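Data availability (excerpt). The following record was deposited with the supplementary files.
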Amino acid sequence: MNQKITVTIITLNEEENIRACIESAWRVADEVIVVDSYSTDKTREIAESLGANVYKHHFMGDGLQKDYGVQFAKNDWILHMDADERLDEQMVAEIKGINYSETDYDAFAFRRKNYIGSNWQRVWYPDYMIRLYHKDRCRFAPMLVHTSLTTKKYKRMKGNIIHYSFKDLSDCISRADKYSKLDARVLFENNLNINPWTPAVHGVVSFVKFYFLKKGIFYGLEGLTASLIGALRSYLKYAHLIEMHQNAALNQPD
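Predicted structure:
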C-alpha cells in the first residue's frame, strides 16, 4: 500500500460486530478510530483491545458523528466503515492499489452487499457507497440518519463492502419502521407537506423499482420479499410524516 489509511467507525452497543469489523479494517489501515456514543456493553473494551483509538462522544446525528473522528486522524485518506460491515478481498486489493499521490479523485465508492441474516439481497445490489475519501476535500452531509459523503469527484470501484444489515426478517421489518420514522422527522422539520396519496404512490413506485427495474422478479421469494420491504419503508416514511402533521395540528392552540 503506497498510502497510509485511517479507518473511522461509529458505534453504540456493537459488541457483537466490532471485533470482526476492526479486524477487517486492519487489512488496509495503519490507524483505526472508533467514536463511541457511550455504549453500555463491551464495545469500547473490545475496540481498545484490538488497537483502535476510542473516543467517546454523545450522538450528534449520523453525519456529524461520522465527521467527528476525522479530527483525530493522522492520515489524509479516510475509510469509513459501519460496525456491521466488512471488506472483501477485491476491495482490499483495490484500496492498496490506488496511487493516492497522483489520483484526480477526491473519493472512491464501493459496491455494498446487504444481507438479511445469511442471505445476500441481490435486489438491493450494487448500492454504491462513497467511503474512501481525502479528509480535506470531502465531508459527510450533516443529516440525522443515512448521511452520505458530498463530492462529485469520485470513482466507482468493483470491490464490495459486506454489510450484515439485519439479523433476520423480523429485525429488517422493525428497523424499516424505525428508520422510516427518523426519515419522516427530517422531512417534518423541513416543513414538507404532502397529500394522503403520497405514501401509497411512493410505496408502489418503490416496489416497481425493485421488483421489475432491479429484476427482483427473477430472484423468487427472496426478490419479492426484498422488493416489498423496500416498498414498505418508502410507504412508512410518508405515512409517518402525515401522522406527525396530524399530531402537530391537534396540539395547536385554538
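Summary of structural features: Helices lie at 18-25, 43-49, 62-68, 89-97, 169-189, 198-213, 220-250.
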